[in-house]
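Attaching the record inline, Q. Sequence:
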Amino acid sequence: MADQLNYNELMQASLRTLVKNVMEIIEDGGLPGEHHFYITFNTMHPSVKISEWLMDKHPNEMTIVIQNWFEGLSVSNDSFTITLNFGDQLEKLKIPFLSIISFVDPSVEFGLKFDDQEEKERQTTKEAEMVTVESEDKNEAEIVSLDSFRK
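Structure, as predicted:
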């Protein structure tokens, strides 16, 4: 067990559950009133499923709009699938909740921005890989603090 609670991670998980709950409401009854969503997600997330041409066009992140027309919205515990129209071409997307970067409903001036946990992990790994200590005297150890590499 950790020495202390990570409130930021707990809050992020709760807010992702809120997005899931909103999507379930829309799945059951459609969009009420003027509500519509802008959802930005990380296309590099391993569980994202989009067509190859969309991936080529949006190699890092993509924003979708759920407003006037969509079909096949299906929500699971960890993701949702939806079919959207891109220039008269229907495309089915699978978007994991963990890949969502932001969720905005401009009709009520509501928005959420999420921490990218995977990006933080990649940065930490990249920083650790960048630190290689070479010493002419192989018997001597050198200590390097990673704090100087953190943003």
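The CA atoms of residues 34 and 107 lie 6 Å apart. The chain has one domain: 7-149.

More tomorrow.
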